[in-house]
Please model this.
Amino acid sequence: MPSYVTMRLAQILHQAVDSGKMDKLAFLQVDKERASLMDHIGGCERISKTPLPRVYAIKIRRYIFLFLVTLPFTLLNKVGWVTPFVTMFVAYPTLALDQMGIELPSPFSPRKLGHLPLDEITQTIEKNVLELVRLNTEAR
Model:
């Protein structure tokens, strides 16, 4: 779909230049932006389709488990009866970081809690472009 959209944009731009509605300099600038858009789309697809190796997640979780299991024993002599609270205070952000690591490999999935709001972003872009087109046609 993204390739089709950029191809269609190229056709529309060529028609605008051929009909005299757009000068060559503006065409070159817009075409450069269109090519940049394709590069960004390719980067997003690579991010979306590159999974984090399972071994990384397993090793990280083992480390977190060992750290959190041994932490109370190291704190017991230093903080005494407060040890469970200090352990929970350290465990929460550590486990939250692990959860962020799970969410990061798929930032575009709406099934994830921390996904990027691409629908809202694209709707805002569409609204702005349509407003620019409307203002441009009114100015003529």
